[in-house]
Amino acid sequence: MQTGPTSNRASRERRFRVLQMVRDHGELEVSAAIALLGVSSETVRRDLRILESQGLLRRSYGRVFAVESGAFETSLAIRHTINPEEKGRIASALVAKIGEAQTIFIDEGFQTQLIAQRLPDDRRLTVVTASLPIATLLAPWPNVQVIMLGGRVRGNTLGIVDIWAVDMLRRLNLDLAVLGANGVSTERGMTTPDPAVAAVKEAAVLNSERRIFVGAHHKFGTTTFTSFAALTDFELIITGQELSATLANRFTGAGAHLLRV
What we know:
Layout: H1 5-25, E1 27-29, H2 30-37, H3 41-53, E2 57-60, E3 63-66, H4 76-79, H5 84-95, E4 103-106, H6 110-117, E5 125-129, H7 132-138, E6 144-148, E7 152-154, E8 159-161, H8 163-170, E9 174-179, E10 183-185, E11 189-192, H9 195-206, E12 208-214, E13 226-229, E14 236-239, H10 245-253, E15 258-260
Parallel strand pairs: 4-5, 4-9, 5-6, 9-12, 12-14, 14-15
Antiparallel strand pairs: 1-3, 2-3, 7-8, 10-11, 11-13
């Protein structure tokens, strides 16, 4: 068995390739990673354990997900492909919890686009959003007044950020804010890689009467660069039934009102 600097360099290069593959796809089956790398399953699984211990990847149900950070964020196009069925269930569950809210902030992201698609069409709503795709989707609806935040457009997610967006939100009184995050942990709460995005989310939290969080199970137990809210800031946190009972109990024990659908 080869050891020494050459072997260590080859291992690092292989792990870097694994990380890039997962980041490029958003998620990857462990079996697919084994086939693509052309090495033994034991070698790939060892690489995945190391990358997970470094906080770069997360494994769940035979799949590997990229953990986002201040240096990496999954694109909106890739998010469409990650757990779409789970995200659809979460979106339907959220719409059922809107209640009497008439002014609603809807966060940027693919999960929240699914929510916008499911909004009721039988009563008038005012939707404030930081998402260009959501504004474009809802603008033609006759029962929805859309207020688009102004500011810089992030090319990766088509979300609006910076001081203009934050100032607009500070002037509004919202019935409900629907928010997502890139990571959710018991220690750091809701986190996102970009401080400019965190500032918009924090302003929505501070200026809304009610707040509901939505996020697929792979977001839980991870932490990214910037915190913007605590678990207890939300009346409800909705995720998929794929979230393990062990992890769910950890979050409820930290004060989260958790709904798995």
